[in-house]
Amino acid sequence: MSPKKKKNNAKGSGGTEEVDDESSEDQEPEPKTKSKRITGTEDAGAGRGKKKKSKAPEEGYHSDTSEPDVRSSKKKGENKGKLKKNKKKAKEDSDEEYEVRSSESKSTDDEDHSDTINNKKKRAERLTEVIEATRKGTKKKKDHQENDMGSKDKKSKDDDKKSKKDKKEGEQPREQGDEEGDSKKKKKKVKKGSGGDSDEDTKKGKGKKKKLVENYVEIYENELRNYEPDTMENYEDEYHKKKVYEVVTITGDERGAGTDANVFITLFGEYGITPKVHLASKSRTAFEKNKTDIFRIKTHNVGPLKKIRIEHDNTGLNASWFLDRVMVTDITRPQMRFYFTCNNWLSKVEGDNLFVRDLLGSLDPMDMPKYNKYVVSVFTADVKGSGTDADVFINIFGEFGDTGERRLDNKKDNFEKGTEDKFTLEATHLGKIRKITLGHNNKGSSAGWFVDKVLLDDMGNKSLYEFPINRWFAIDEDDGKIQRDILVGGSEPTGIVYHVQVVTGKVRGAGTNSNIHMLMHGSKGLKNSGKIFLQGGKFERGLTDIFNVEISALLSPLSRVTIGHDNGGVNAGWYCEKIVVFCPFTGIEQTFPCSKWLDEDEGDGLIERELYEMVSLRQRKQKKQPWSLWIWTSDLPGAGTDASVYFQIYGEKGKSDEMRLDNKADNFEQGQLDKFMVELPDLGKLTKFRIWHEKRSPFAGWHLSKASLMKTLTKEKFKFPCERWLDTNEDDNELVRELPATGDLIAEPLPLIKYRVTVCTGKFGGSGTDATVFLNLIGDLGDTGERTLVNCKNNVNKFEKGNMDEFIIEAVSIGQVRRVRIGHDGRGGGCGWYLEKVMVREEGQAESQVVEFPCGRWLDQNEDDGQIVRELVPFSDGQRLYNVSYHVSVKTGSVSGGSSNSTVFVKLYGEKGDTSKMMLVVSDNNLRNYFEVGRVDVFTVETFDIGQINRLMIGHNNEGMNAGWFLDSVQIIVPSNGSQYMFPSHRWLCKDEADGKTEVEIYPSEILDIKQLMNYEITVVTGDVSFAGTNANVFIQIYGDKGKTEVITLASRSNNYERATTEIFKIEASDVGKIFKVRIGHDGVGIGSGWFLEKVDIKHLIMGMEEEEETEEVMQEIVQMYAFPLLPLAGPGGGGRGAGENTYEVCVFTGDMLGAGTDANVYINIYGENGDTGQRLLRKSGNLNKFEAGQEDVFTITAIELGPLRKLRIRQDNTASYSSWYLDRVEIVDTKDDTT
């Protein structure tokens, strides 16, 4: 075979020298532990190495030294080579997957080889007999057809006799112990006349086969229940100490034995499992026929070796490889040399078609490790369309590892409707079986597959495991999965869900048509997910593909991730940017950067890579646990629906998000049970279940029979009976149902209550609205959710001027109603609405029991503060003070096409609760055309105090011409809490970009402390006299015993300060303590700027004692009010600190030098013990021309008593042409006590 070019890996160093002719003979492959894998099973892909996160990159060194212990003498090699040839003959005829160990072939490469070709033939004959004798009675004619991988010669009956003779001489490798070896001979005789191969026959033949009843589901779920979230990996233990191993591979002397593929090794030891290490060589002749290659690899210390997994990636022109044996030595302890015999093909087309092999090792070169057999029986259900043409794979997991993915194929038409298919897998001993992973690759026109069950016969341990499944493996059926984990002892265990984001890079040609797969590895690599096929992804340049992977293993936090592809398709090469894995169960999100090609023609030529976490990017998110949700549609005519169904769960500790029910199948058909797996945060004991759909069209109605929820981990179960229509034409014409939780855990379910809601529209011109109005009642025990007010009980034309519209809202009891959130969608011409109040009472209660929620405000984008949704409290006094303002600054990225015309919404989650979705429709900075490229839009949303914000959801409704949006970041300022939150995003929210999401959950990158402000409600009353109103800009400043506020402008979107009007404003300002005065004025701008002000009231909340009904006094927030009537000028209520007015005469002396005077405006502010006058314009003096050289100007300033004066501030505004001014001095006369 001509030398083949090998791919180079940056990790490798050194090379392999070509071996001379003599060496070639010396290195002839030894068959000491030859695997006779004569079965149709084919490995689904590369084997998996397992390891905890590496601190340093794995290194592979390829040495060209041929050490004495690696070489073997020519004599021994010849003898072994002969034996190997005839063993191959035996392999060709054998119809079972056995690993045969012959005692003559136990010696290793340190020993001499024997000579003659005749001996080869004799040994081969003996080996053939061994194989015949070890066949089990479970496999007869049927298995012969299933598992024959292409026999070349037939063996004689004489061979059978010889085989039995040799067996007595102790040369038979007995995988199942000495007793079993004897029993096999008996079974062979018993079975000889039988043509059947049924499971019953198997049991009869074995006699001692027992059905294993251990419930692994319990063990697994206990592990989940006892999960310790904060256990940290101990990086000081032995596993994390780096070690150098010498790996010697000896390629066999078969025709075409060499390979061009990339070869990998994984070491399994007592301390853990290494990552997969690339055996990279700079030599062009590595892994050539009859060649010894020596490598040095630096990886984790796994302790004494148990086994290795050796594999290649099936790339290159000649991928098939005949491996004779492998030796692994701990460099620091040369006596720790382990020998691993293979003597088999690693090939997709040769032998048993496996190119991943697990090899058992031994310190004794003469030792013969024993392998085990597993007989897999797969039962395809007798259901229409249940068969599949796809390639089926299985992975068996036990106490001591897994088999890796094996393809189930035996050259016949398998997995047809109603059939049983049997396969024999040969593997290392796995101990007690824990679970299997079964799946297919979705190939072919009829890929969907319905599996009834799988039986697994562990021949070595005489144990039979049953795995009931009874589920579809189909993209378009059931939950859309084509791969499932099935545990011993349960068909539907708690699956741990991992949300996997696969990001394809933005480099040219980055996309791929290959099938992508991944593996997730737990701590120290001891547990892994098995190979997961990521079906349904696009893997196109610049896109993010999202997968929800459910496996029955808790691996998070992951130590590493393996990502690769099958190198199929036209454009097989792929540029992977990164992998992001989020496990809701642990709440940990990990990022695994890649930024490399997986392409045999690019870079280092690898098509599979091990990725390690960038720990600095790790995020802790809200934890969620899996629940099983079952929904029964009634068996009534027309009971089914095609509408999208949504639900929300409430518990004692809070509520879930609104979630859509979708599982790829045709759901909610008449008489059907639909099953869903949902993830919910810790809600405590469940209290109610809300379910609804939004389709108001004919035939969208749905009759729901009942629903049930079970926490899969603790088996807590809650039932929600319904038996009602969700239909605009049936029952009460409502599309929403609230169902109280019932079941063993609920002593007394909450009652279902009808709330009578009266909505009173104002009596102003244009008060009514044609927009869609919605309402949410919020109480002590939860809320009703947003209900669209459609079915009015007393008016056909709703929400007209002066109307009082009544609606019935049916909901599970929410306790005392504390708030009402009401708003409209802002659609339609003249959608502005003046809401007077909302009244709520329980149906059947007296009118006197009604709770009134006053509003008295516009819900209009062009009036008041522009908000179209308001939260009302049952207090007329200071009602605006009970809401907290959240100032949301949204920055659109500077990316081409990044702007959006969609309506953007935000939802905030805090420690005290979460808000509903709030539409961002009116900005504070009034930029009109929102969310343009590179711009910041600021919005204010008002709701109850949710405490510290821990995350937010932001998205858009994907409507409009340019719906896609590039969100750069979000900043939220909460002045009343003194907090500022930064939420970086820098991602697309677009159906056609990245991961296709239009909404995203973001966690804060930092929380800053800012100055805490207080809410003040200011009521300004303009007098009822002619021309009392003003168009000028009005400002106010508040003084208290702790200081004063800034000068604050009082304005809204309405036409303010008209004659005989009352305006109410909410402002955020410093806490000034007890208020003793305000200063209010205007800037004199506009025609007729004069203003007749009647009075000013200021309110804020303080903590105080309030008497509750039939209870003692409790400490709570109460409204403190200060009234400031304008005439006579006084403190609040005419009394209080510094009450009463005072007049100050201000004498200003201008210097007498040339040019000392000024024509500019002069302002003065006088400071005393009780505050200051504020900045006043010195307008009228005794002189017509003020502030001339050598002149004294006298001005009178009236203000609240300042007490003893401390200082003054005087300035000019530099506006006139001769503005420079030489000021000599200022004298102030306090007219009250006549002091200067």
From TrEMBL:
Domain PLAT: 243-360, 372-487, 496-612, 625-740, 753-873, 884-1003, 1014-1129, 1142-1236
Biased composition (Acidic residues): 17-28
Region of interest (Disordered), residue spans: 1-208
Classification via InterPro entries: Inner_ear_hair_cell_LOXHD, PLAT/LH2_dom, PLAT/LH2_dom_sf
CDD domains membership: PLAT_repeat
Ranges of biased composition (kind: Basic and acidic residues): 55-81, 99-108, 125-135, 143-176
PANTHER family for this protein: LIPOXYGENASE HOMOLOGY DOMAIN-CONTAINING PROTEIN 1, PROTEIN CBG12474
Name of this protein: PLAT domain-containing protein
Organism: Coregonus suidteri
